[in-house]
Write a structure and sequence with these properties.
By secondary structure, this protein is of the alpha/beta class. Helix content is 47%, strand content 8%.
Length: 441
């Protein structure tokens, strides 16, 4: 778990992550609301609540809720940067403050020469962090100007944080000591940033409910010692998602407390992030409360969720035609549907397409036998109500209408269906041709 968490955090630290990902990691991107507007984070490493005006960038952007594809228009594209060979760049040169800072900036943009697996990527990032740390310390031993000193100090904090996450115990001690030194020097912004990095280092070690509650108490204390701004909102969102992943029941209460914290500030981001925390809390409560799917089938009929799910196990597929991974998984869903539908499985697709005509054209070429739910004049309000921000998202719903699994994809889905229905024989793909979308409930 530590290695995975370290890799995720590495992929999202803006100063190291860039748009590179290991060859054995699934591509993903996240969508989030920023000051009320939909904003695509098209590249891994994009900063969720980035403030360009901030003197210090907080780079830990939601490392623990990776989903495939994202809410975005098809026209939102990114240009893949070329991979740069490492060469001797890990050998820190001698030079002036300006030359060393230029080297640091070059090193930050460095990517492997070719796609590599996660183990080699972790090694590459460790070497990168070690070189950045050494370069930053060389700058600090000279006589840099204030802005140069700040940049080097931040680099040192970030590099120590990554090394600590990689399992280096000395790096954690150095990080803790350096934060204390910054406090002594009255570098309050940098010290606060360093404490945030320390909190992130502790996250992978937080597992039990008791540990989570202890950590959250320290977290609240940290927040109370300074103003809440973009870095703090990002930290709150990042670390709360760790709790959501490990202990959903505790996360429900934590999201409630975060909403209360947001209500006490006038920061323009507060309302936006609080709304999303409310949606996340509501979603997590689906483990104990029935889910509701509202909207219309594409032939104009109101979708009768309660009647549709009665006596059935239902896979709810939140998807979009512009999401490549959503489209890629349709054949597998067809196979699952053919295997288990006679044993009590149903599927309903909830489309996030903004353009209904494009959705209908897609379904005309790729008929799907289960109903597709849409809204009156746009996507179903179910998406916003439960805070669905990344696609595909698949939930498995039990006969009582409560969610069984929030991660019902691939092997997880197959395992859950075998648990619920027992092993199924091979799918009979010749049984029944798919009916036009929206024609069956």
């Amino acid at each position: 778990m530590l290695e995975i968490c370290t890799l995720f955090v590495w992929g999202h630290l803006e100063f190291l992550g860039g748009s590179f990902r290991p060859v054995d990691a699934e591509p993903f991107c996240l969508a989030a609301s920023y000051q009320g507007e939909a904003s695509l984070l098209a590249e891994p490493g994009s900063n969720l609540f980035e403030s360009r005006s901030a003197s210090i960038r907080f780079g830990l952007a939601v490392p623990l809720q990776l989903q495939l594809c994202a809410v975005a228009a098809p026209s939102s594209t990114t240009t893949e940067q070329s991979l740069v060979p490492a060469g001797d760049l890990f050998a820190v040169p001698e030079g002036s403050v300006a030359e060393l800072l230029e080297y640091i900036e070059q090193l930050r943009r460095l990517k492997p020469q070719e796609p590599i697996d996660s183990d080699r990527f972790a090694q590459f990032q460790r070497q990168k962090a070690e070189a950045l740390l050494k370069a930053a310390e060389k700058v600090l031993t000279q006589k840099p100007k204030e802005a140069q000193w700040t940049e080097a100090a931040q680099t040192k904090l970030e590099a120590l944080g990554l090394l600590a996450l990689s399992g280096d115990p000395d790096a954690k001690k150095q990080l803790d000591g350096y934060v204390r030194n910054l406090q002594t020097l009255r570098k309050r912004e940098l010290a606060r940033y360093g404490r945030a990095v320390l909190l992130a280092v502790h996250v992978p070690k937080t597992n039990t409910s008791q540990e989570i509650k202890k950590w959250f108490k320290e977290f609240v204390q940290f927040l109370s010692q300074g103003p809440l701004g973009p870095r703090e909102w990002e930290l709150m969102d990042t670390l709360s998602q760790r709790i959501e992943r490990e202990n959903p029941a505790v996360a429900v209460e934590i999201y409630r407390q975060l909403v209360l914290a947001a209500a006490k500030t006038r920061d323009p981001l507060a309302a936006s992030v609080a709304k999303k925390w409310e949606e996340k809390g509501r979603r997590l409560e689906l483990l104990t409360k029935p889910i509701q799917i509202v909207g219309f089938t594409l032939d104009g009929r109101e979708f009768q969720w309660d009647r549709f799910r009665q006596g059935k196990i239902v896979l709810v597929d939140f998807w979009a035609t512009w999401c490549g991974w959503c489209v890629r998984e349709i054949p597998e869903l067809m196979e699952v549907y053919q295997k288990y539908r006679d044993r009590g499985l149903e599927i309903v697709g909830v489309s996030a397409d903004g353009n209904r005509k494009e959705l209908e054209e897609f379904l005309g070429k790729t008929p799907i036998p289960w109903p597709i739910v849409y809204g009156r004049n746009g996507p179903s309000p179910t998406l916003e109500y439960y805070g669905i921000q990344a696609f595909p998202t698949m939930w498995l719903v039990g006969k009582d209408g409560k969610v069984i699994s929030f991660n019902a994809r691939g092997e997880n889905l197959r395992r859950e269906l075998e648990r619920l229905f027992g092993a199924a024989g091979p799918a009979n793909l010749s049984v029944d041709q798919p009916l036009p979308p929206g024609k069956r409930q």
